[in-house]
Amino acid sequence: MTTFLTALLLMLSQPVDGNTASKSNENSVIDAADQAFKSLHYEKADSLYNVMIQDGKESAALYWKLARLNISVAEAIPPAEREKRMPWYSKAVDYGRKAVQLDDSNASAHTWLAAALALKADRIGAKEKLNRAAEIKRELDRALELNPNDDVAWSMLGSYNFEVSKIGWFNRFMGGTFVGQMPKGSREEAEKNFKKAISLNPRVIRHYHELALLYIEEDRKQEALNALRMAATKPVLMKSDARRLNEIRRLITRLSKELEGK
Q1: Which of 34, 35, 92, 102 could serve as 70's disulfide partner, Cβ 3.0–4.6 Å?
Q2: Nearest of 70, 63, 120 to residue 91 by alpha carbon
Q3: Residue-level pLDDT at 133
Q4: pTM of the full predicted structure?
């Protein structure tokens, strides 16, 4: 026993390797930034993530987390204030591209690049959606190839298929003059995608909300109401969830009245 204690004390008394200490410090900063993000302290998270960049500690994980953060900040801004949202979406796209550039095998890098591209295009208009469609789909396919259990990628794929199912009118409006291949997507696929996302992570408000919006579009009011009621029971994981919950409550009230009136 004495020999063991002596050896242990000698081991603990050895100086810590510089690389080990540096790595430990790096991990502690990332952990603190991640915790700040989860606690909805976005400014603190941004500062901590950027400390890593300033110290030259770049990685795909760091940049996709910055993409996610900037998307979250943008989504927390009221939709009517589009001009305030756009710089955040643009930064998210840049960070997403950097993450993919650093590590093409990082599934989350592809997921959040796709999310940034899709959300930015959605706020610009139908033509931009068409221009970005192929890249968004490619990034989502790559993300799910690398990680089939990525609920965010499935949810974004649902949004992609839902949006694509609605933009056929644009080609007709343009008189068939759109140059390029029209993207393919359907509401049936979108519904499957949203349900897959829910099965993988049933705590996320967005998954239920977006599925409900699809049901409303198809006049499937009871199914929409069921999805919205489920969404209303879920925790606020991002600042934008608070805004979604306000809309969800309004929709629940409206659909309840409409169904009662039948």
Answers
A1: 92
A2: 70
A3: 86
A4: 0.84
